[in-house]
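Example record

The entry below shows one chain as it appears in the dataset: sequence first, then structure tokens.
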Amino acid sequence: MDDTSEPATLREKAYASFTRHLLARDLRPGQFVSQRELVAFTGLPLGAIREIVPRLEAEGLLTTIPQRGMQIAHIDINLIREAFQFRLFMEREAVALFAVNASDAEIARLRREHEDMLAQALAQTPTPEMEARAQNIDWAMHDTFISALGNEIIAKAYLVNSVKIRLIHQERFRIDGRVVPVMREHLAVIEALESRDPQKAVEAISRHIDNARRLALQI
């Protein structure tokens, strides 16, 4: 076994643990945190934490402020605009290619998943568990479009932005109470995919992302 792989493994574990705690809201946007506190959160060595700090800073997830320490990314208007613009650029191209290249079976799976969720949301009072499933369906569809590109560079960049989008969702608006309209917006995208019309798919995904952006900017 190559011993040089161990530090890299610890770095990746530390990074994954940091983002997991961030999305679980154990770490909050704008919160100040020390390296030793991150050690306590992640359960990983201080050396691994020190090594991921430059990466987190480069990705905009953490900022080092002199005399104050490290601050978790703060959700502000600029971050919202930039994160949604990045998402729009990436997903417009991804959904256009998906409309041409995706299998009928994959598109049919997306339709079944969304129609089942919509029917459930229309038939009963939403529960936290149902809304959590709906949120996972929402994110999974977007991730599917990006994954289908088969481009590791895009996938990694999108993943970083996706963490920011999820933070924005948590702080600014959630799917709670909005399962029906979100599922319907997704079904409009799926209908365009079924017609194999890239332009129609681009227009549908653009409307959906723009609606989310406007909701995030309202508060």
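Notes for this example: The beta strands are 32-33, 62-65, 69-72. The domain at 10-72 is CATH 1.10.10.10 (Arc Repressor Mutant, subunit A).
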